[in-house]
UniProtKB/TrEMBL annotation:
It is a peripheral membrane protein. SMART domains: AAA. It comes from Streptomyces clavifer. Residues 5-230 form the ABC transporter domain. The keyword ATP-binding applies. It holds the Pfam family ABC_tran. This is ABC-2 type transport system ATP-binding protein. It is found in: Cell membrane.
Amino acid sequence: MDTVIETVGLRRSYRGFDAVRGIDFTVARGELFALLGTNGAGKTSTLEILEGQATPTGGTVRVLGRDPFRERAAVRPRIGVMLQEGGFPPELTVLETVRMWAGCTSGARPADEALALTNLNHRRKVRVKQLSGGERRRLDLALALLGRPEVLFLDEPTTGLDAQSRRDTWELIGELKAQGTTVLLTTHYLEEAEQLADRLAIMHRGLIATTGRVADVVAERPSRISFELPGDRLLGELPPLAPMGVTKHETEGRTVRLETRDLQRTATELLTWAQHAGVTLHALDARSASLEEAFMEIAKNLDNEETR
Ligand SMILES: Nc1ncnc2c1ncn2[C@@H]1O[C@H](COP(=O)(O)OP(=O)(O)OP(=O)(O)O)[C@@H](O)[C@H]1O
């Protein structure tokens, strides 16, 4: 495996406040790795170190086999960076901004190509201050792509984008990945991570709470079934739940909620019982765990542990 990004025991403190408290992860060439986390979890603090904008308080970091801060001159031309806040000169037009940036970038793509990739060609003559928030994010992305980077760091690339622009950006990121670009992105949109990420890490208060492929992170969580029993049926009429694979259950009035690690088996046995018993299950809902549930549960559990 060709490791492109590696952190070992990475720490970052701000005047005694530990924002990143020792994290380890690797990203292989061509992989898309998503850093998720609650607000203030330490994602941007981590990203800034990987981008060579800051030094770690402890631990080591390697990007393309080098120290991104000390060996910035060697690393910077090979990476593309999209910050959370771009900060462009407001009076320049979109095209002038891209040309100015291209002037500082070795082997830059033509400005037209960068603008076409990010669907900004029709806005080329507009001043930056007149762009919408979403258009500014796309301009940020255009600049990050100018140098045809081997590694792309994207800090919340689709925040503020409308649904169509978000999907266009996902498509573009997917194409860049297909061309072999290694991507590390942070996002608050769990659907974005589900769509794009090969692997992800969920950060919480400076630590990685869980990491793995999306399917693995989700597989650690139970699936859920809920339904309402009709008024003429008693809860006691339900078959024994444990043999159906139910790991947890609760009732509220006539509503029954079940958790299971084997959704197909539990659902099949429940529906078979209902059919034989002539019971109609109202408001029946059966669903696999989602990344969102995994995320919420991790954040809740860790908060409970810390307040204990
Ligand atoms: N320059 C700084 N000085 C002091 N504290 C800081 C500084 N930058 C960040 N922090 C703190 O470090 C913690 C981690 O911040 P960071 O921006 O890395 O989190 P994040 O996961 O990117 O959050 P968000 O999702 O809200 O963007 C937060 O508690 C933040 O207030």
